[in-house]
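Consortium newsletter contribution from the modelling node. Members have asked for a concrete example of what our holo predictions look like. Here is one, prepared for the guanosine-5'-diphosphate complex that several groups have been discussing at recent meetings.
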Amino acid sequence: QAEPGNPYRVVLLGASGVGKTAFASIFAGAADSMDSDDCELCGDEMCEKMIEVDGEPATITLLDTWDAETDSEWAQENYMQTGDAYLLLYSITDRASFLRASELRITLRRFRPAQHTPIILVGNKCDLVRRREVSVSEGRACAAVFDCKFIETSAAMQHNVWEAFHGIVRQLRLRRDSK
Ligand code: GDP
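And here is the predicted structure:
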């Protein structure tokens, strides 16, 4: 049960440079937020706010604290266990970040066995068509193998970013309702 007062913790994961900070600032800037006040709970690494999804309010605490360069097992494990749901980002212009996303998905599964943690694989920077290194069908196939949803986004164009947040809330609700 996570509604007002009991926020969903959504974690941004992915290689450095894929657009996590850009996602977090769109979320923090929240054009479609229900309250227009400045977000008091927003800092560099986390932001909490209420958004409306399918006519129902949902509070999300967005965490953008992943240090892509960390190789501390402890830090990774800790991080992999803090979220209720994950947005796993790569850049469609960077194949290495796509491979990194697969590794992170495997690490997530290792730290959270048997938990149906909602995860969306997000192929960001889809505005950079000429620099594309990962095709839509590769992204979709990867998501199918890893049993998660898939979406392509452009934080630069603000395209599909809110759809990704709404998608994660829908998955969290499905999981809540099936309990
Ligand atoms: P992070 O390291 O994952 O937090 O990545 P950032 O959010 O800092 O983004 C890295 C760079 O990519 C920055 O220069 C962003 O402006 C740029 N960027 C992020 N998202 C997009 C996007 O959707 N399209 C384009 N063209 N650039 C993007």
